[in-house]
Every structure is written in structure tokens, then in C-alpha cells.
Batch of 2 targets.
Target 1
Amino acid sequence: MERLDDVARRFLVLWGLWYVSFSRGDYTPAVTAGERLLETARRGNDGGQLLEAHHALWPTLVSMGEVRRALPHLERGIALYDRERHGSYASLYGGHDPGTCCRYFLALGHWGLGYPERALASVYEAARLAETLGHAMTSTITLSFVTSILYLCGDRPAAIGAGERCMAIVDAHGFGGRAIDIRVLLYAARGDRPDVAALDALQRERAQESNRAWRYGMSGCTVAWLYGEADAPEQGLQVLAALGDAEGVGFHGSEVYRVEGELRRRIAPQAPDDAARCFQRAIDLARRRELRSLELRAATSLARLWRDQGRREDARRALADVYGWFTEGFDTQDLRAAKALLDELA
């Protein structure tokens, strides 16, 4: 490959190397391949290749939890994308439209960084663009992101609506590889008391999923939490263990630690230190990555634990520090829950 003088051929080979690594969740080699792809594109004079080089890097970096590093690529993607010129790229690179992709990954990044209102604006902009394109796979992926962002913001009825629209396209076109993650979110969003047998079936289907992108970590944390709600926390811990090292999970690595703490608290309420250590790891990882929404979740879990131990002032301080950072999204579920707990502690 290094001897290829043809930039177009070299670009396609590098894109293939990136795609394989990214699809497997091997983010470090995927970033390396994406950076080489960008270097190659910059040596050519093809704006479409430049767009696709950035398109390789923004989902990789967001998926691995490095949202700040992804922002320049997301912004460049929005600037480079032209619907008339690049609307056909779905058939050439990855099976979906790059213009919608940069918008829905920007939405996930905004939510993680602590800007839920911006996240909703970005994901709805992606949905509007997808509607104009009429491309089934693009619509499927976009609606899966709409479902995820709405669920993360705590709008369960809207998440159910988006998820059901997504599943209708999946069923009509046979996109089975996208189905399991949406089914997990729909199960959680509907709010019925979790059933262990149903969760076992979901988990068996998840175990067959070869794609290890960010959504796999999210669905794993969701299923593990649901096992806890079904009074089967040990099975929840098994789901988390199957995800591997929390930091390697990517965007939702902090949630792996937090959900583990919630499950351990259920298993051994008389040994709160184990849960507290998990919550602190979650806070530390989210803070290193500047993922404020995940830090807020972990701080809320820790504050509840300390409140129940009678450490009310420690609980208040732990939560007030991160809650006070937020400037928007105060009607979303996580911020409402944090505010209610702070009011109680005050």
C-alpha cells in the first residue's frame, strides 16, 4: 500500500483499514488509520475524500469518548458537506449519508459534554436532512440516534415514538443488525417492570452482535441496570463483565462503573464502600473526558449513597459541584433528579 502512487486507490485501501477497525471497536488503530486517511486526502484535490477522511475520525473519536478531539472534525464535516454533491456518498462509504452522520454524532457529543438542548437540536437537524434524502439505511441510523438522545435526555414517550419508527424501517428492509440496540432502549423506555426471561433473550441477542461501537456499550449498561431492577443484580454484573475493561468500552465507560456501583449496592447494601469506589471511578473517568452528563449521573449516584449513610454535607458538595456547571437542559431527567436531591439535602 505504501508504494501506491495513485491517491484515489491509496485512499480506498486506507478507508477499508479504518472501517474494519472501527466496526470491531478497535478505536486506537482506527484513529491511526483515520489520521493517515486525512493526510492522504489533504495531498489530493478531492473535497469528497477530505469529507470522508473527517467522516472516519469523528465517529471514532466520539465513540471512544474523546469528544473534544472530535469537534474539529465534526465542524469541518458540516462545512464541507454539500447535499447535491455528497448525497450519493452513502453508496460509496459505509452505507449512510455523511451529512446526517456528522449531525447525529455532534448530538451525542453535545449530550456528553453537558449540552442536552444542543444535542436535541443537532439530532433533529439530522432527522430533517435524512427525510429529504429518502435513503433507508441513513434514516434507520438517524432514527436510532434520535431514539438514543431522547432516551438519554429522559423523554421516554418521544424515545418510544422514534424507536418504533426506526423498527418499522428495520423490519421493512431487513436491517437486523440495527435491531437489538433499539429493542433494548424501547424495553427500558416503556417502563414495565423488567422480566428476567425477557432480559435473558435480549442479552443472548446482544451477544451475537459483532459491531462493538458506542451503542453496544450503551445497550449493555441498560440491560445490566434492568437486571438490577428485576432483582437479578448478579446477572447485571455478568453483562458488564462481558463488555470488558470500562475505559476500553468508549463513550459509556463511565456508565459501566456507575451501573456496577448501583448493582453492588443492591447485592451488599451493608458494604457501601464497594459501590462508592465504583461511583468515584465513574466520576474520575467522566471528568478526564469532560463528559459532564455522565459525571452528573455518577455524582448523583454517589450523593444518594452518602445521603443514606448520613453523610449529607459530603453528598451535597459532591453533587453541587457538577450540577452548578450546567447552563441548559434543566428540564431533562438527570438534571431534574439532581436538583430534587440537592433540594432534599439542603
Note: The domain at 214-346 is CATH 1.25.40.10 (Serine Threonine Protein Phosphatase 5, Tetratricopeptide repeat).
Target 2
Amino acid sequence: MDIKKSCAVLLFVLATISQQSGGQSTCTPASKLYCIVPNQLGTESNEFNALNEATGTVVSDLPLASPASGVIYTVDPQLKLSVPSDTTLGPVLSQRPETVGRHKMYVSVVYQYFQFQRVDGANLKSLPSVTKTSNLAFVTTNNLGLSVHQVAGYFTFGLTNRIDVSAAIPILDVYESFTSVGSKILLSSSSTQPTPIDIRNRGSATGIGDVVLAAKATVWKPASGGLAAGVELRLPTGDAQNFLGSGTIGVKPYLSVAYGKKLSFHGNIGYQVNGNTILVASSSGGKGQLPNRLFESGGVDWGARKWMTVVVDILAERVFDAHRIVIGSSAVNADTFPTIVAPSPINSYNRTDASFGLKMMPVRNLIVTGNVLVRLDQGGLRARVIPLGGVSYTF
């Protein structure tokens, strides 16, 4: 995995720095990705912990395609039989209030690619760092390359015409590269020439991410659209120390509303509560809480043809009480260098994306989906564009 590699590179750099300064690495086990940054830079200060926290926050919230977002079945009041609905093929990354249908099974496989470029607006290709020991300063510019391939399988079963249950099982492949270039400078000495630093590393990891279980019930069903209440349970099944998962449980109750048939307006709101994870350092040095998040989305799906639906969405979330990263400065002898710093106190931020999708049904009950998610702001660890492709079938 990119993340794993980056961490490994950081760990290697930190280990080298620690050996040169006579220090000890404090992050264990050193083979894990989340130790790369602190071990490579020889520190576990808040500014570098924020990188791990940002990664854990993103991994626990990689966008998943909406279950039951394809062909849905309703009961014909005259025939008393389940028949395909004449609504659209549904949204891509937002929930819809309709359920898949009594005793119907929806299966889907979706692929997404994430190439992260920025964290809190800072360019991952040029993260400055000044790390000091009692007599040395390490001034480096760091290039962190991080990308994730995600393949997720979705399974939805209709318990009744108004209740369905779902499971999402993601498999992540993370690739990380890390380069640290700069100088080792002897403090309180202007006559000694700096020693060059040039450390490069890369690595990858693959495995199952955090499994998500969900249940949804339609509480109001008019002639078109409706209102549903649901809950998602994220299980810490992914290896958090290798950035395959969040390292903690998460619970997200939500509401979903929609109105219309051929032109359907939909909206979602939910709040996710998270537990404590190794990816977030508490004030006492132990596990801290993964930030809670408020989710909102709204958009329209238009059935341009019976076999084709165009989808546009705005997806937003508020991330509460999170460690952030900003670029500050640090004095070394008579010079001043830019460096990552952690603002205090911790604060909240927004993440907003636009989603553009197309769903087509080449044969009955088989849906082919394409989508792009486009970044609209800078909060957190962000990718500029996230492509999605998937296929689904309703039995």
C-alpha cells in the first residue's frame, strides 16, 4: 500500500536520524506503517501524529457505493406481485429511501482509486520538517506518495418490502513512497558544514478493510420517493497499524429522503460516532478518539431513459475535534526554516465533494455504473478526483 510504504519510508528515515543522534525509536512495532513517520523523523509530536490521524480518518470514511441503488421491486396493488419499480436506477454514493424488495438480493462489486495529493491544503510532495535533538537539527523536505485501490463487495437482502439489511466488504491495496531530502545541522555552530540527507523508500500492503453492516427501514412511502431511517455499523476488521482500517468501531444512524420518479431529488443526513484508536494519540499518550463526523448530501437522479440514469450529488461532512496540519517555521542557529506544526487547540473542519455519475442497464437487472468524485475544499487528507466503476445485479 502507498500508505504503508510512506510509513515505512518515514520509519526508515526516523530510524536513521535516531541512530545518528544516539536516540531511540519509540514507536513499535517498527514494521507497521503508522510508525514510519515518528520513527523516521525521530519524534511523536502532535504535528506528525496528525498525519496518522488524517490517514485513519480517511480510511474509515472511504466513500462506498449505495446499497440497493439499482433495480428495486415494489408490490403491484392489483397483481399482488413484486414487479420492478418504474423509478430511476438510483444515486451512486447517496442512500435512497426505497428498499430492494421483499426477499430480493442485490449484489455489487465496485472499484475506486484514490491518489492523495494534499493534507489540510499542504502539498504531500513538499512537506517541510525541522526536527531537533539536544545538539542536532534535521531540516528536510519530504515527498509522501500515497494511493489506494479499493474493491468493495456489497450484499443487500430484502427482509420485507420496507426493511433490508446490507454488508459492505472492502479490500484495500495501499501503495506508499517516501523521500526525505535535506541537511543535518550541528546546533550552535555556524562553522560546521551541514551533512546532506537523502533517504528514499517505498512499500505496499493489501488486505480486508473495515466491514460495514447496515439496516434500513422505509418509514414513509408515498406514490413516489419516501423517507427511510437506517444505521451503519463499521467493524474494526482492517489492520489499523498498516492503515487498512480505522482501528475502532463506528456507528452511524441516518435519514434518507427522496421525492420524484423520473426526476428524483434525494437527500441524506447522518452522524457517525467513533471509538478510540491507535491512530490518534491522546494527551496522555494512549489511544485517542477518532473524530466524530456529521454527514450531509443532496442531489438529483434523472432517468433520462428507462435503462439510463444521470446522477449529480454534493456530499459534505463536518469532522469534529481533529488534529490539523499547518506550515509554520523553526529557527536553526541564525536561519529560519519552514516546518509542519500542529495548531492548538484541535479544531473542526469541513470536507465537501461533488459527485457526477452515470448508471446504465444493458440487460434486465444488470447495472453498470461510472462516477467521479471531485474535491471542492482542502480539509483533511484529500484526493483531487476519485474515479469509480462498478457492476450490480438484483435477483
Note: The radius of gyration is 24 Å.
